[in-house]
Amino acid sequence: MFKWYVMQSKPQKEYFLYSQLNLHQIKVYLPLIKVDHQSGHSLMKPYFPGYLFTNLDISEIGMAIIKWMPGSKGIVCFGGQAANVPDYFISQLKDKLETINALKNSRFFPISEGSAVNIIHGPFTGYEAIFNEYLPSKDRVCLLLKSLSENAFPIEMPASHIKI
Dihedral angle at the C-alpha atoms of 45, 11, 62, 57, nearest 10 degrees? Predict the structure, then answer.
């Protein structure tokens, strides 16, 4: 009977094990989440580092081929029994990660350019500024700080340090 099982990979070998399982024509799901990198690019990283899910019939394939597959540490077991995961869990996980990754694509920030904001933390606490830009890869904001001379100069700070 086909069931979903949690499979453990060797450290940082999730993608390699994924390809090995595909080569053996074993259905596999590697949950990935979009992560912003320092360079400004997004990377897809395993949501559960070191783990992935396989859908197979253990009685047909056997545990040995899974345990000794390159990149594998085997199927997660409790009390010597392979731990299976309900189908609905996999379905809900896929839906949830799809939603999270779609939101990360939108790069939504609730303050629009040109809005007046108050700085509530840090060395400029109590000052008013003009919102210029949200930097999602750093979760920071660029502001134009008002000065006494009617000029504004740009500053950057954590997004959590401002409010409308």
Answer: -20
Closest by CA position to 77, among listed 91, 63, 92, 61: 63
Q: Which tokens sit at 17? A: 């094990």
User: Where in the chain are all domains bearing CATH 2.30.30.30?
Assistant: 116-163
Q: Does domain 3-106 have CATH number 3.30.70.940?
A: yes
Q: What are 126-151's pLDDT values in tens digits?
A: 888 888 887 766 678 889 887 666 67
- Domain(s) of CATH 3.30.70.940: residues in the chain: 3-106
pTM over 0.90: no
Class of domain 116-163: mainly beta
Side-chain half-sphere exposure of 87, counting CA atoms within 13 A: 4
Q: Which 3 state secondary structure label does DSSP give 126?
A: coil
